[in-house]
Amino acid sequence: MAGKQRYYRQRIRSTQALKKIFRAMELMAASRIAKARASVEAAGPYSRAITRAVSAVAAHADVDHPLTRERPETNRTAVLLVTADRGMAGAYSASVIREGERLIRDLTEQGQEVKLYVTGRRAVSYYTFRRRELAGSWTGFSDAPTPEVAAEIASTLLDAFLTDPSEGGVGQLHVVYTHFVNMVTQTPRVIRMLPLEVVDAAPEEQTPEPVPLYEFEPSADVVLDALLPQYVRSRIHAFLLQAAASELAARQQAMHTATQNAEDLIRNFTRLANQARQSEITQEISEIVSGADALAS
Question: Within its chain, how far is the Cα of 261 from the centroid?
């Protein structure tokens, strides 16, 4: 009985230590989620503005740009997975990887050769363990992405798309990331980025103003050359910001659940330890009474 009591006390102490860690991580995620959500909202106006600008050029100019042109001469497709650098966020990274694997499987069945790009140590570890070749990887910023990182990723992916197919260029680019809906819901999404499909603003973002006529100088080609790379960079940055907010929300929720589970375990172990202590006391009393009876007889 004494051994059981020591065992339960040890489990209580270890669970209490874990509870402190879980609680600290929950508070850290909660303190950072507000900034992450603010970054998502702050990036919205620029993203909408550049989307309107690109839509205007595409609508008022008949231009055949490399970023909007289909490339049937190659069967190579680039896929970018956006995951977390750290764990303890529930199924956040696993959901993105699962969605990415489904996309890769579909593309492979269509005869496409997939070149995989990933962000976050979770995806790097997953594919390295399985000895899957990565065309590119970025780590160390998943919960606080910067415009510089987004520009580096966009530049790499644009180079892969604009490279001649005979030299290894890709014909499509897909991005798999987690869209932040609210603190409870984060949804994995698959977006085809290239060839470019300019998406108009959402209905609630549209204004009833009349559409003006545009004249592009020096030419629509030059305007598109300047706008489209900026558009791709802004969208990738928006995806990274959405993923960062989703990661922090998932971590806060997971750590809150882990803290509650630790409290339940502590209560259960405390009850078992008390039962073991009561059994030990009862046994000692029984032995004392039995010894006294033996001496009296």
Answer: 24
10 Å Cβ neighbour count for 249?
A: 26
Cis, peptide link before residue 147, omega less than 30° from 0: no
Structure tokens at 81: 């997975």
Secondary structure of the chain as H, E, C letters: CHHHHHHHHHHHHHHHHHHHHHHHHHHHHHHHHHHHHHHHHHHHHHHHHHHHHHHHHHHHCCCCCHHHCCCCCCCEEEEEEECCCCCCCCCHHHHHHHHHHHHHHHHHHCCCEEEEEEECHHHHHHHHHCCCCCCEEECCCCCCCCHHHHHHHHHHHHHHHHCCHHHCCCCEEEEEEEEECCCCCEEEEEEEEECCCCCCCCHHHCCCCCCCCCCCCCCHHHHHHHHHHHHHHHHHHHHHHHHHHHHHHHHHHHHHHHHHHHHHHHHHHHHHHHHHHHHHHHHHHHHHHHHHHHHHC
| The predicted structure's pLDDT at residue 203 | 44
**What is the structure's pLDDT at 94?**
95
Tokens 């899957």: give the residue.
Answer: 132
pLDDT of residue 236: 93
| Predicted local confidence at residue 80, as pLDDT | 96
Looking at residue 60, its pLDDT comes to: 65
Please report, for residues 32, 150, 229, the alpha-carbon distance to residue 232 in angstroms, rounded to integers and kept in the order given.
27, 10, 5
Angle between the 220-296 and 92-109 helix axes, to the nearest 10 degrees? 130
* Predicted local distance difference test score (pLDDT) of residue 91: 92
For the whole model, what pTM was predicted? 0.83
CA distance 187 to 177: 8
Q: Which domains does the chain have, with CATH numbers?
A: 26-253 (3.40.1380.10)
Residues of the chain with pLDDT under 70: 1-2, 58-63, 197-214
Q: Read off the tokens for 265.
A: 């375990």
Q: In 10 A of CB 140, how many CB atoms?
A: 10
